[in-house]
Every structure is written in structure tokens, then in C-alpha cells.
Amino acid sequence: MSDVSVQDQRMATETDAAVGTGSARDFIALLKPRVMSLVVFTGMVGLYLAPGNIHPVLAFTAILCIAVGAGASGAINMWYDRDIDAVMNRTQGRPIPAGKIAPGEALGFGVVLAVASVIVMALGVNVAAASMLALSIAFYVFVYTMWLKRRTPQNIVIGGAAGAFPPVIGWAAVTGDISLTSLALFAIIFMWTPPHFWALGLYRSDDYARAGVPMMPVVAGARETKRQMLLYTLLLLPVSAVPVLMGDLGAVYGATAVALGLGFVVHAIAVLREEGTKWARKMFGFSLLHLALLFLSMVVDRLVSAPVWKVF
């Protein structure tokens, strides 16, 4: 990690010394609610698609545990990254660098929620789902946040696996195991993550460079990042088709996956061709819509369509 300025180091020190007068809203902000919403939704879809039945109370418990576990990961991430958050424009307003919550409070809050979410999942739902939840939290905290993020431009490629676990957890909550279908859902999010975050990295590269975070645009340059973004969007197309090829989903999902996938590729090509960051910003926004609509189409497909081979 590159050295930050004396002023930035002083800011980080002052943040560590914060007494912490955070409100409920500040503690909620620690949970990264915007990120949590997409995590919870993909977990719900995994639970919905899984074969078998689950009592509504247990289903609610599973989703709540996924939400709390994701929020706990976010809180611990903010605790660990408080030094770099203090020097990045995008993150300076977060509760810890803003001095609203003391680092120790954030860490304790995150650890308690993480442990509680896993225990409740194990006791209330099943051990398989709890094990996947524990793995996702540990992967995000120890593998991505503490190991990869500050060491390699491949941080988001490998670390992105943490965000791909929710549909697997949801599936395991119903079935008690992991299947090829749930792994296909995992693979979709895994392949989606790099172009999603690199789009953000392109128009926030100055922020990451100042904080010494080796995001791909900072280390490899904008041009190479754009090439890899296009590659991942192209690879996402066949990966998104796997649930159809396996016979788990049908024509509605298949058509949506193709349309959204091609839209993602078009955005990646526009990013590759531009000199500025206008299309990178657009691609970041589209990527969020892409994943949300893709998983929504899985639910719609299951409701209204037969497997594609029966349709044709």
C-alpha cells in the first residue's frame, strides 16, 4: 500500500480516537444497506428456486440471517478499512471516518451480528445453510478485506466469491445441501462481479490510487481494465445460460439473460472505445439493474414457463 499524506494519517488517527456518538442510522449505515439489499434478493431467489418446501417462518429466518450476516461483514469491513476510507472521497462520510462511531464499537457490532446470524441459522434452519453463511462472512472479511484488497489487482475477482454465496445459502436453507443449480447461480454472480466493480474503479481510480488500493485500473491501467471487463461480460453470456441448459429454467429466463447479457456487452464495448468515464458510470448503474432483473426473471420464469425444451 502506498504512503498517504501526513494530513491523511492524522485523519485516520483522529478517527481511531473517536468517542463514538452514533445514532441508530449510523449503525445501520455500517451494515451497507444498499449492498445488503441485492445480497438479500439473490438469497431469496436461491431459496425460492430450491426444490422442496420450507415453512414460511423458517424461510423468513433464513433470509434475515443472510441479511444480518451480510451487514456484519460490511461493518467489520468498515472497521478494518477505516484508514483508507478516511482518504477516499467516496467513503469519507462513512460512520467511522466521520467520527460518529468508534472503531471498537463497529468491530464489536459486526462480530456480534456475524456470530448471531450463524448460530440462529444453524439452530433455526439447518447446519448446511449456517456453514455456507459462515464461509461467506469469513471469505469477505479474511480473504477479501484483510488479504486480497490491498495486495493484488485480482482482489475483486477472487474476493467477489463472497458476494456470490447468498443464492447457495438460500438453496441450502431449503434442501440442506448444495447442488449444481445453486453453483450455477453462484457462478453467474462470480462472473458478474469483476466488470461491475471495475466500472466503479475506472471513474474512482484517483480515489483508489490515493488510498493505495491496487484496483485493476490503478495497477494495469484503464485500457487493460476495459479489455478484461469486456472479456468477463462475454464469458457471462454462456454462464448465464447454464440454468436453461440444465433444464432448471425456461424461455422467460433464457430470453432475459440473453437480452441483459448483450446489453452488458454493449456497455463494455462503449467503455472500451471511450476516453473518459461517462460510459463507465453508465455501465456501473446498468450492472446493478442487470443482476436484479436477471434474478427476478428466474422467479418469473418459474411462475409462468415450462423448461425451454418443452416450449420448443
From TrEMBL:
<comment type="similarity">
    <text>Belongs to the UbiA prenyltransferase family. Protoheme IX farnesyltransferase subfamily.</text>
</comment>
<keyword id="KW-0350">Heme biosynthesis</keyword>
<dbReference type="InterPro" id="IPR000537">
    <property type="entry name" value="UbiA_prenyltransferase"/>
</dbReference>
<dbReference type="GO" id="GO:0008495">
    <property type="term" value="F:protoheme IX farnesyltransferase activity"/>
</dbReference>
<feature type="transmembrane region" description="Helical">
    <location>
        <begin position="180"/>
        <end position="200"/>
    </location>
</feature>
<feature type="transmembrane region" description="Helical">
    <location>
        <begin position="155"/>
        <end position="174"/>
    </location>
</feature>
<feature type="transmembrane region" description="Helical">
    <location>
        <begin position="252"/>
        <end position="272"/>
    </location>
</feature>
<dbReference type="Pfam" id="PF01040">
    <property type="entry name" value="UbiA"/>
</dbReference>
<feature type="transmembrane region" description="Helical">
    <location>
        <begin position="284"/>
        <end position="304"/>
    </location>
</feature>
<keyword id="KW-1003">Cell membrane</keyword>
<feature type="transmembrane region" description="Helical">
    <location>
        <begin position="229"/>
        <end position="246"/>
    </location>
</feature>
<dbReference type="InterPro" id="IPR044878">
    <property type="entry name" value="UbiA_sf"/>
</dbReference>
<comment type="function">
    <text>Converts heme B (protoheme IX) to heme O by substitution of the vinyl group on carbon 2 of heme B porphyrin ring with a hydroxyethyl farnesyl side group.</text>
</comment>
<protein>
    <recommendedName>
        <fullName>Protoheme IX farnesyltransferase</fullName>
        <ecNumber>2.5.1.141</ecNumber>
    </recommendedName>
</protein>
<keyword id="KW-0812">Transmembrane</keyword>
<feature type="transmembrane region" description="Helical">
    <location>
        <begin position="129"/>
        <end position="148"/>
    </location>
</feature>
<dbReference type="InterPro" id="IPR006369">
    <property type="entry name" value="Protohaem_IX_farnesylTrfase"/>
</dbReference>
<dbReference type="InterPro" id="IPR030470">
    <property type="entry name" value="UbiA_prenylTrfase_CS"/>
</dbReference>
<keyword id="KW-1133">Transmembrane helix</keyword>
<feature type="transmembrane region" description="Helical">
    <location>
        <begin position="101"/>
        <end position="123"/>
    </location>
</feature>
<keyword id="KW-0472">Membrane</keyword>
<feature type="transmembrane region" description="Helical">
    <location>
        <begin position="57"/>
        <end position="80"/>
    </location>
</feature>
<feature type="transmembrane region" description="Helical">
    <location>
        <begin position="35"/>
        <end position="51"/>
    </location>
</feature>
<keyword id="KW-0808">Transferase</keyword>
<comment type="pathway">
    <text>Porphyrin-containing compound metabolism; heme O biosynthesis; heme O from protoheme: step 1/1.</text>
</comment>
